[in-house]
């Protein structure tokens, strides 16, 4: 890629009716452009099955690969496996108000030449992140976890003025 941005576009008009297979890659550049918080790196392959029909198209996405994020426990980068599938329907020339609020239905104008799927990819990537972003047990950076434990301990030992107040209440 000679400095050229990857375009996540489906060329609606130049494709004939039928099934079309496409592939897109998501890399660090995508994270930076979309300002995805806390994500350090990404290496994903998105397979797209686009079925074009006269009035209604379908879009099937299969996202596979890995992203790198700071570990919940030790804050060191951890690689997380991403596996996500999503299907949506594209209505051509449909009344947008009727469908505007559904995630799985995209309404486009009949004159639309291309469909930009950047936002669909963005949302699917965020949805596919695991709740717990951490190394497998025992694989965390030992120094950092020891340090965090130490900090937690010191914080607990520090006398909290609210505790003193409570002690007085109990004593009296
Ligand atoms: Zn960790």
Short description:
The protein is of the alpha+beta class. It contains 5 helices and 7 strands; from the N terminus they run ββαβββαββααα. The chain has a 5-stranded mixed beta sheet with strand order 2-3-4-5-6.
Rg over CA atoms, rounded to whole Å, is 24 Å
The tally of domains stands at 1
* Helix-residue proportion: 25-40%
What is the 3D shape? elongated
Listed once per kind, the bound small molecules are:
zinc ion
Count of runs of 4 or more consecutive helical residues? 5
SS class:
alpha+beta
Tell me the total number of β-strands.
7
Mean pLDDT: 87
Largest sheet: 5 strands, mixed
Secondary-structure element string = EEHEEEHEEHHH
Neighbour order of strands in the largest sheet: 2-3-4-5-6
Terminal Cα separation, in Å? 74 Å
Strand content: 25-35%
Report on this structure.
- The chain has 172 residues and is of the alpha+beta class.
- The protein has one domain (9-138).
- The protein has helices at residues 28-34, 96-99, 118-127, 142-157, 161-171, and strands at residues 9-10, 18-26, 41-52, 56-70, 77-92, 105-108, 115-116.
- Strand 4 and strand 5 form a beta hairpin.
- The structure holds zinc ion (ZN).
- The site of zinc ion has 8 residues, from loops.
- Zinc ion binds at residues 71, 73-74, 76, 78, 134-135, 140.
